[in-house]
Amino acid sequence: MRTFRSLHHANYRLYFTGALVSNVGTWMSRVAQDWLVLTVLTDNSAVSLGIVTALQFLPMLLLAPYGGVLADQFSKRRLLACTQTAMAVLGLLLGVLTATGTVELWHVYVIATVFGMATAVDNPARQAFVSEMVPDEDIPNAVGLNSASFNFARLLGPGTAGILIAGVGIPPAFFLNTISFAAVLVALWRMDPATLRHSRRAARGSGALRDGLRYVRTKPDIMLILVIVFFFGTFCMNSQLTNALMATQVFHKGAGEYGLLGTIMAVGSLSAALLAARRKVPSRKVLIGSLVGFGFSSIAAGLAPNYTVFAILLIPFGLFALSMMTTANAIVQLAADPPMRGRVMALYMAVFMGGTPVGAPMIGWIGDTMGARATILAGAGVSLLVAAWATMSLMRTHQIPLSELHRRVLWWPRADAPASTGDEPPFTPSRTASVPVGTRPAAPATAEPYPAQEAPVSPGRPAQRR
């Protein structure tokens, strides 16, 4: 079945299963942490919750590029084993502090910061590891299935956490999250290293990060995506905060109803992930359309008259948000050369998640001064503005007149349409042959190893992801 073709690869099948279990624990822990800050450690302080979120993502902005260097220079599988173990220990520590009644707000701040440091190494390695488990033609499918796993877990995790918190308290959610990390560690241990597609590792040295930045600057398609995901991640992807504010301040609901919002939103996100898994290649039609759809669905959700309507509107909200993210992720993965993929994905995650330390406190301030509804409407406005800017940038880069806007920017032929249709040149990702296991040739040391393209490559492709 085309939707699940990446599961035919044994290593990816193990990874997918372990990640699914771990993701359930992750969502349980997120809900428990938010509820701990809002109702136990503060009196529904949106600013405090925004600070926790910011501290958790600040290391991503500062350290993710270095995490990408590590992912290109060392075994991604071993790096993931180290980071997952560190996250499990942090989850256990927060659970113990909460269960013993000794937890304070500064404890959560410190743990969130250290957790973010582990995430800054884990995310680039995990994103780039996909290309070692599946062939290039299955990368969009694997990205979609990764997102499907994450959002299927969102169906189970928040609701389960809400029930646990309402029934027995907050600590069990943290303890179950700690146990869930064992699933990933077992999956990594059981993988067959001989069947992984090891790409050439980057030479170790002080210039590795600089090479990655210089490489990205020669890729207009990647640069466009980085700008889009920065604004989207900074001002739009704050549902963890906005849902908590809407549930407590607008609709005056408890932990169970708050957890249910995450589960309902995951219905849309899971649908988007499965659709992404079916596409052979990503397209800018989906990218721009998702930005527009997210903007209008956010406006509707921000103006929802009651809890039930708000919950229902989170389905298209989640669908458009996840469609944008999986499309952007697949475009960047396919556009990057394998030896550079760890650093490129690190920069991608840095700009996508690294803007949260700026956006989350701002959204929290908006919530405290203008109300919870304004936090969602602000994200809607940013999404629509980014969609307009991306469209104009594509028109300018490819010299597309306004009369051709619909045909060449907002419309794509089928994935199996011939390349000679004239709508746009096909996007062909660079592919470097995989290096046999055990070989580690050094990266080229020429002064200009990444020459600029003769013509910009469009991030869009014919119609075609944990």
Question: Could you please describe the fold and organization of this structure?
Answer:
It contains 16 helices and no strands. It has one domain: MFS general substrate transporter like domains (Growth Hormone, Chain: A). With 466 residues, it is an all-alpha fold. The chain has helices spanning 10-41, 46-73, 76-99, 105-133, 139-167, 171-190, 208-217, 220-235, 239-250, 255-278, 284-302, 307-335, 341-354, 356-370, 372-397, 405-408.
Q: Give a short account of the largest sheet.
A: none
Distance between the termini: 18 Å
What is the fold named in CATH at topology level? Growth Hormone, Chain: A
Measured by DSSP, the beta-strand proportion falls in under 5%
Topology (SSEs and partners):
Blueprint: H1 10-41, H2 46-73, H3 76-99, H4 105-133, H5 139-167, H6 171-190, H7 208-217, H8 220-235, H9 239-250, H10 255-278, H11 284-302, H12 307-335, H13 341-354, H14 356-370, H15 372-397, H16 405-408
